[in-house]
Specification:
16 strands, Phosphoribosyl-aminoimidazole Synthetase, Chain A, domain 2, about 350 residues, 60s Ribosomal Protein L30, Chain: A
Amino acid sequence: MPASESSRVGKWSEQEVLDRIEAIRRRAPRLRDEAINMAHGAGGKATHTLVEALFRPAFGNPSGDAALLSLEGRTLAVTTDTYVVSPLFFPGGDIGELAVNGTVNDLAVAGAQPLCLTAGFILEEGLPVETLRRVTESMAAAARRAGVSLLAGDTKVVPRGKGDLLFLNTTGVGEVRQPERLGLAQVRAGDAVLVSGTIGDHGTAIMLARGDLDLETDLESDTAPLHELCSAALEAGDVHLMRDATRGGVATVLNELAAEAQVAVAMREQEIPIRDAVRGAAEILGIDPLYMANEGKLVAVVAAGDAKTVLAALRSHPLGEQAAIIGEVRAEPPGMVFMHTAFGGSRVVDMLIGDPLPRIC
Amino acid sequence: MPASESSRVGKWSEQEVLDRIEAIRRRAPRLRDEAINMAHGAGGKATHTLVEALFRPAFGNPSGDAALLSLEGRTLAVTTDTYVVSPLFFPGGDIGELAVNGTVNDLAVAGAQPLCLTAGFILEEGLPVETLRRVTESMAAAARRAGVSLLAGDTKVVPRGKGDLLFLNTTGVGEVRQPERLGLAQVRAGDAVLVSGTIGDHGTAIMLARGDLDLETDLESDTAPLHELCSAALEAGDVHLMRDATRGGVATVLNELAAEAQVAVAMREQEIPIRDAVRGAAEILGIDPLYMANEGKLVAVVAAGDAKTVLAALRSHPLGEQAAIIGEVRAEPPGMVFMHTAFGGSRVVDMLIGDPLPRIC
């Protein structure tokens, strides 16, 4: 751990530098930008600042994940997501399947059984009706697979040049049967951190589909509904928290977790499952796969004693065959995520800065 | 009524023409367009065709109004709406207030108490942060007025030229306490049709705000939350159905009602409350105010014997001061809406065709 070393940076001791960084970390983020830029939608630091500095003061506590709602003894989970992915169709999926799975997953990681979804379309004038048909059929198929119905919908059309073919909002309502089981308050030092499979597949597949990389692979998006995998994990052991690692990737999920639960997370680089094609593409793009979006992978924080049982449960499901224990929760330093590298060192894994992979969901 | 006359159109008798029209009306709509055009988003005939020919086969029965969801003895109402109004700020409101009120109203006319809203933003790169701040503050104020919380949110950013400053989805969840009270099945011949105030204010205000008309008025959008007005109506008498007359106006609401409940609706032109400024603007635009959007007006179908009591209840609320009984439900001809004009004649009021007022919500 860096804190245990004792070098000096200029006139400050390393401890003073760390204290100063910690003080800055704890400050309420200030929004200095005067105009929205792509990074505000990337799910990383700029999105976080926008939420903290603008949405939270206005709305109280709007959650990007499923929010819980008490209804006289019952607990509903509600989540909303907007999809602006480009292109609309990509290896392994399309915007419709992505939207349905994404919302199903937000509910699933909250421990909720999905009750219904809604769909809000923004169509650009000139969109081929055939494209819309393919997207809606794909949504319907994804909803059937996840056992949820699309209950309400809305369609708006904007003039040519004021949109980009098709944007899609999906909102989901589910019911949480055991609301006391999962939550930031359950996370404690010593807990194991698991991922349900290889990371970065979706982000890489989208970049490849755009032709941004001169690379031919058979890599596909991992878009998939995680409700069965979540149930399997919950049945297998003492799971404290689950998140799906979408925009911003595993690094962002763990940073949010560390900040919100005021714990540290230590990852072991060798344990993180990454496909060779993703590793290769990441190298060319200069992006760490830890920041790449996944659309069918969950991160689970599990009581240390149950980690292996939960791991086995994940691995016994087709979507979790490559699940792994990638790290652990520590008490100190709160809010910090770091990585023990393959070379024996360690480095801080901060939140995503900028938007290296625009419009991946 | 036209059916009682007996003229001939070419070789067909009027009755044969009417029968033929009726047969065409009853056909499942076919989507002949190969590309989306603005009319598909206008809420009229093209939107209806898109829903019937494309969304319904894929999703079953997605409702544009609030859909009901049974939850072991309790009934939830869920509704989603996307807002692409241009300009974002207009006399009497803005996109944020419009979105919150619109979703609150979809729940209210379903007889539901709102439980929560979600908000999904699509921001165009370059949007001034100050604009976003004004919109979110306006949403928060509207939510407070309606006594509902914004529980979950999501933000995406699209590159400059791929959006139009800001699009907004709001989805609402409410609870229906007496689900058996309201519904198409309750509507019967003889019921009175009420509106809660002047029609066409919102659509006209938007057209004026765009400067499309060389006209100066102090007309404002009627955007307002209807939950109190709906409660007042329900408490006052035997209300069979409520709808908010947004996109497509009162004419569209009544056409949908007539088609879905297989009844006719007869309106009396003199009874329909319309402001002079709206009437004037409508004349210049060549659009019937019946097709103009309202964002704070409800249409209620009420048992004949209770019509006056419900009218009095509406009028005793500030938002319903100009409420009126504008017509009645009849048994024949099913699916037809017509108007007794001020001149003693009658005319068919069909669904909106085309999109004379794009992006009014």
